[in-house]
Task: structure prediction
Amino acid sequence: MTDLVVMSLEPWDEVWRRNQYLIAGLLAQDPSLRVLFVEPPDDPIHALRRRRMPGFGHGVHQVADRLWTLRPLKSLPRRLAPGADERRAGKVIAAASRLTMQRPILWVNDPASAIVARLSGWTSLYDMTDDWLEADRPEAERARVADGEAWLTRNAGAVMACSPELIRRKSDQRDDIALVRNAVDLTRYRMPTERPRDLPAGRVAVYAGTLHRDRLDVDLCVLTARALGDEATLVLVGPNALPAQDSASLLAAGVVLLGAKSRDEVPAYLQHADALVVPHVVTAFTESLDPLKLYEYRAVGRPVLSTPVAGFRDDQATTVDTGERFAEAVATAVRTSLPFPAGADGTADDWSDRVRQVARVLHGLAP
Result:
């Protein structure tokens, strides 16, 4: 294996997720590997509608040794620009050609990107991390995802999924889906850090993850902040994809929103939390997940309180509850927790184990 093209759902940035940990591990393990990481396209019209700074894409850009990124541009809505997905796929194929990637393996994380596999003929690996058919999306977008996923489960050279529930749901379409769970950078999360300067003084309950209505129960966050009162602060750490009215409701309740933090910064927020929380909605979508934060929370050993969502629901070290009882449990936990590293788990699953699993899958696809 020498070349890999990754169709990602997230950009290659300082907020590391599954793709980045796995790709970085594979690059470190195999000195012959080269990777073109295709980020989601910039959509300036959508950004302006949400009152955010628009981006305009970029061509092939080298970000590390043997690693390049490409960010396409979605200049117009699909209804005004028929064939936009085919043109995007053509740009990906052309970019790979410029890097002299003649027959790369195509890693597809975004099922709507199946068009690249169709047009290129490259051997593909489909990595399922969420059941996007259960997410709250416009019908046209859901139809594209459904079409791409159906094609990939039939035609990909290999399929892997992050949770047993995803495998169960898709087993009628394919019976050889490999389970590759998420994990944690154990060394990084176990190394003691200084308290972040922007973490509020006093006791804090911390949530780490992208703030999105697909996962976050905004009303429960407000309820929890009010239960903490003047004794402690609820802090949300992560990229904010919430509607403006949700952010305003959180701030009015006293919740502190710290925004996105780099992978080097996140462990400090978890280590210095008096409690770690998972105020997630319980839906068919969240049931499909293998939450990254499950492994990160375990590694630092803080008291963990969660709604009954997949992963945390069956974790014996997690207090599971809902509504007012959840909020009250958080308030109790922040008053009684011991400082890090008390309770830290030095045996949590490390990303190096997952890299070896994925390497075996990829080598099975190599010509």
Observations:
- The first strand starts at residue 3 and ends at 7.
- The chain has 13 helices and 14 strands.
- The chain has a mean pLDDT of 93.
- The radius of gyration is 21 Å.
